[in-house]
Amino acid sequence: MTVLRSILLNIAFYTNLIVRMIVFSPAFFLAKRKNAWKVPKDWASSSSWLMDKIAGATFEIEGLENLPEGGFIFAPKHQSFWDTFMLLPYLDDAVFILKRELTWIPLFGQYVNKMRMIPVNRAARGKAMTQVLDRTMREMEKGRQLIIYPEGTRRPPGAEPVYRYGIARLYRDLQVPVVPCVMHPGLFWPRRKFLRFPGHFKVRILEPIQPGMDPDAFFAHLTETMERESDKLLLETVRANPHIPLPEVTARRIAELEAADKADPARTSGSSRAS
Prior knowledge:
The chain is α/β, with parallel strands linked by helices. It has helices at 2-23, 25-30, 33-36, 38-55, 108-114, 127-140, 166-174, 215-240, 248-263, 271-274, and strands spanning 57-62, 72-76, 94-99, 118-120, 145-147, 178-183, 199-205. Pfam families: Acyltransferase. Residues 72-186 form the Phospholipid/glycerol acyltransferase domain. Pathway: Lipid metabolism.
């Protein structure tokens, strides 16, 4: 049944994406940029509905009150294709720094350019990267929300953290709050797999880290906070969904957290490995 549901969801998901991109393109490109957000946000909401109705996977968001007004850096865990789009309806005017090759994709590239996303040549150095930072600053001055995945690439739930220092440089240069966010959609929409699993999970938006900290201190605080809260939420999610098949790395981490929890139930495990 899981295989059948996964096949149906994948067909419905990509059909929904392609059809909406074509049908709503006139409205999207004729609208003012901020008004045009309605098209991708509605697509994200409809994708959430499909995931619920076909695969039986649902989610809830805790901590929406922690999102500041205006511009900030949104720093979520990155485990799945799911977390690249499902939270867009909850942000006013998001912006991504993305590899420039994505802007070359027919139609999708035009969508990206319309929303003033920031392309970067990852092989470039020096002047090119300075130009990206300057462009990012201009967009943030308009009160946009910059989405940055602190680990850079998708990681399985519970995997050893590999936070990249680039977010500390952006925190220093942009002088806006950073809002960490932990979640485990990778258990239900795994990376590099077509299977989609039923169940319920939480997205937990943490308190913003205000600007002004030393970049090194900020980086250590961000890493420790996200790993501690991520471990706590991972344990909650797995206990609430005992049917979910766990990747080997996730199963190992759960075993470590269970052992720590038995040794000291009042203690939230996970901060030691991030320090």
